[in-house]
Amino acid sequence: MDLSPGSIFAGYRVLARLGQGGMGQVYLVENTNLSRREALKVVSQAGNGTPEFAERFAREARTAANLRHPSIITVHQYGVENGVPWFTMAYLDGHDLSGAALPDPEIAEVGRRVASALDTAHRSGVIHRDIKPANLMVTRDERTGRLDTVTVLDFGIARLADGQGLTGTGSFIGTLSYSAPETIDGREPTPAADQYSLACTLYQLFTGQPPYTGSPVSVMGAHAAADVPAVSGHRPELGALDAVFARALAKHPAQRYPDCTTFADAIGRALAAPRPDAAAQQTLPAAQAHHAGVYPPAGAVEARTHNVARTTNQRTPIAVVAAGVVVAVGAAAVLIYALLPGSDDPGSTSAASSAAAAQDVSRVSSVSPAPGASAPPAASSAGPSAPSIPSESAVPSVCVFNAGPVSGLGTTTAEQLSAAGYTVVGSGNLVTGSITENVVFYEIGDEQAAGRLAGLVPGGAVTEPKPAAFTRCPDGLAVIMVTDD
After folding, report:
1. Which segments cross the bilayer (predicted)?
2. 3-state secondary structure of 351
3. H or E segment at 58?
4. What is the DSSP letter of 232?
5. Whose CA is closest to 368, among 140, 109, 71, 178?
6. DSSP string over 69-101
7. Which residues make Cβ contacts (< 8 Å) with residue 457, sequence separation at least 6?
8. By CB atoms within 10 Å of each CB, which of 10, 80, 263, 268 scores lowest?
9. CA distances (Å), 366 to each of 195, 209, 441, 461, in order?
10. How many C-beta atoms lie closer than 10 Å to residue 106's C-beta?
11. How many Å apart are CA 407 and CA 356, to the nearest integer?
């Protein structure tokens, strides 16, 4: 359902459309009675026209609205208008944590506040089901630049898509990179599942990537059976966190911490333990240095926000609500990731997975480096520098393809990357149903180059090793565009 600016919906005046995700659209609206701006989410979910869905929507929205905690988003109002469920939430001037670069103490503080919010919800019988960086919003004090609020979005909303007749029995709701193995297996989530998702999220904030990456099948298998990758494998100075994350990411829920706060406290104690001095941080690769509190020069890296006209380091108000379902996979079904010889399709999933693989609008925003963060002493001339665009001779060649519905998106992206100094050696369109988000494919060894490129892609991108059957760009990085939101 599309709402035009200036129109009236459920008594709210629509000001602008902020984005769209798997469970509906998000709008900036004015509460005309209170002269207050709010974020309105219109739920577009299969089955929402039935009395059963409307009843379940009211129950879940009422439960979410009754949660009281400084770090839980406030639900103002909810209802059903012409058969369409909707709810309004607080509208904050902040950023979510997708692609965030925070100093370690701030990561620990984010973990502490989110853990407290989750434990509060768990005591009320509410499981979030979709904790991830895009569902965590932060604001900063305008005077000091320090963290002000840390807010968890979409409490209880993902549950709306979980039920017989919507996703089907034996399915899971969440985002694959951050989902606990028991939920991927289709079992009912418990508080321990939220703890696992929080651990995946904080792991990414500390290291720059979630614990398991790759194709959907490889990520599912890793959650189920792979050893927990050590944080120290990415950042050797954080070896004290290895045991903490090994427990929080245990395959069996009973082996994790008793609650989220205990997990967050363990992180605090580990960070307080003796660690290598600042000089050791100077030798970190550039892609890791910013996580130790070493940031690129102001303006060197564009801060991606929900503003359509993205400007360097601009803080733009965005909706404090994420859009629900990202991946849904039946437990009894076999998810097939097929690479056909000679095919340009890097993979295909089951029909159930593809149908629910809509992207969260919040996934593509990022957080600017913490204002006022102090960097360690400058590294020697031989050491790596903070992330920036290298000279043209050092930049791998790039191919850009459009796999989304927006005509000309690939061409526009190619022009922007070319202006940023990249050599675009190929472009075109891809017809594939298996790519549901912007992605940068790279050859082994080009991980850091892919990460830099992903940060410049309009709307942001994930990075994955180039599938063997993807032959359209044999000698460079490949950018596959789906959306610029």
Report:
1. 318-340
2. helix
3. helix 51-65
4. G
5. 140
6. -TTBPPEEEEEEETTEEEEEE-EES-EE-TT--
7. 413, 417, 438, 440, 479, 481
8. 268
9. 23, 14, 21, 11
10. 20
11. 23
In eight-state DSSP terms, residue 190 is: -
Which amino acid is present at 350? S
Count of CA atoms in the C-beta half-sphere (13 A) of 473: 28
Q: Which residue has the tokens 């902020």?
A: 18
- Single out the catalytic residue among 96, 104, 130, 360: 130
Instruction: Name all domains of the chain by residue range, CATH numbers in brackets.
Output: 8-92 (3.30.200.20), 95-364 (1.10.510.10), 392-481 (3.30.70.2390)
Q: Distance (Å, rounded) from C-alpha 288 to C-alpha 248?
A: 23
What are the mean pLDDT values of the chain's consecutive 10-residue runs (485 residues total)? Answer: 90 88 79 91 68 76 85 88 86 86 96 97 90 92 92 70 40 79 90 97 97 93 95 95 97 97 97 64 38 34 26 32 36 30 32 31 33 39 36 65 78 84 81 74 84 85 80 82 78
The 3-state secondary structure of 398-463 reads EEEEECCCCCCHHHHHHHHHHHCCCCEEEEEECCCCCCCCCEEEECCCCHHHHHHHHHHCCCCCEE
Amino acid at 464: E
Two tokens at 260?
């989220």
Structure tokens at 112: 């502490």
User: What is this structure's pTM?
Assistant: 0.58
Q: Which residues lie closer than 8 Å to 240 by C-beta, 6 or more apart?
A: 270, 271, 273, 275
